[in-house]
Amino acid sequence: MEIRPLKRHLACALAAIGLACGTAHAAPLKKVVIYQAFQSVLYVPLYVAMDEGIFAKHGLDVVKVTAGSGPAGVAAVIGDHADFSLQDPMIAVLANLKGAKLTNVAMVVNGAPVWIAVPKTSKLKSVEQLAGKKIATAIPPSTSTYLLERLLKAQKIKTDLDTVQLGSELAPLMAGRAEASALYEPQLDEGVAAGDRILYSFTKHYPGGYAFSTIDMLKSTAKKDPAMVKAFVAALGDAEHLMHTDPSVSVKVAEKEFPSLSKPVVKAAVERMVKENVYPATPAISPASFKNALALQVFVGNIKPGQVTYKDAVDPQFVK
User: Fold this and answer.
1) Of the four listed, 2, 40, 66, 199, which is most buried by Cβ atoms within 10 Å?
2) Structural contact between residues 169 and 176, judged by C-beta atoms closer than 8 angstroms
3) How many CB atoms lie within 10 A of CB 301?
């Protein structure tokens, strides 16, 4: 019995199959557009999913556009210029009260990422001692300022608020014009690097989480392209999980996205936000985190008590 010809034919067949597999084209990536409010160190989970190729692994080609503000990002979704936007979820909630049909599907910034800092030489040891002092904070509307105002009101503390442009809250503290500042990152760790210390951390006073920045979309997208939404949320979830299992990835991506910032400051800021769960381990928007964010809008007076529910504003079906 002649075996060699059979082996030869089999080898040729396998080679042909291999050639066919090698020349077959992979399915093209689906283009997805997301508008972010700002280029922010708070949004590192999105950048990890993009820069580490995680969206691509889920079949998506994600294009990021910086809107310049939260409302502009939401408007892009409403106008069908974007599939998603990333900003304070309450902006989408407020848009819905005016007739829009948006829903929030994934968490990007969990926890209230605001800290009150004072100079290292300051004698201030507690929030109560801020009475009568000048505190630098962002010009409203700003979540940092609203959180500060609510804290001061709850403590029955009267202070002198020095409102400045968002992103410049550290300057009055460094110049000695304010005795404390309410800061976001990376300003916080820029101050710490210069010798400031943290007097109060808002992140530690919201153990249930705080829906600070989320992904929103049109409600109709859930029916029009559920596979795309599922892939997007799954990729974001993979990125957030990676950030908590290997924080060095977060630092690497943040350094790439913010080359003008000091690397030690970037590293300190990112590691702080991983540790304090500002970067969530999962994209799930919990009822507790949404409730905490909603309560601040009620305090400000933008939303009436009972006017909005979790079910109205969040679609949790895509988070597994």
Assistant:
1) 40
2) no
3) 7
Q: Measured between alpha carbons, how far is 176 from 199 in angstroms, rounded to an integer? A: 17
Report the DSSP pairing between strands 115-118 and 180-183: antiparallel
- Rounded CA separation 211/290 (Å): 5
**What is the rounded CA–CA span in Å between residue 125 and residue 7?**
83
- The answer to whether 88 touches 212, Cβ cutoff 8 Å, is yes
The structure tokens listed for 317 are: 């079906």
Distance CA 56, CA 94 (A): 33
Element (H, E) at 95: helix 89-97
- Tokens 């989480």 sit at which residue? 209
The tens place of each residue's pLDDT in the chain, 320 residues long, gives 444 444 444 444 444 444 444 444 568 999 999 999 999 999 999 999 999 999 999 999 999 999 999 999 999 999 999 999 999 999 999 999 999 999 999 999 999 999 999 999 999 999 999 999 999 999 999 999 999 999 999 999 999 999 999 999 999 999 999 999 999 999 999 999 999 999 999 999 988 899 999 999 999 999 999 999 999 999 999 999 999 999 999 999 999 999 999 999 999 999 999 999 999 999 999 999 999 999 999 999 999 999 999 999 999 999 97
CA distances to 143, 251, 316 from 117, in Å: 16, 23, 36
What is the pTM (predicted TM-score) of this model? 0.90
Residue 305 in contact with residue 298, Cβ under 8 Å? yes
Distance CA 77, CA 218 (A): 7
Task: Give the CA-trace dihedral at 120, 126, 130, 136, to 10 degrees.
Answer: 50
φ/ψ region of 159 (left if φ > 0, alpha if ψ in -120 to 50, else beta) reads beta
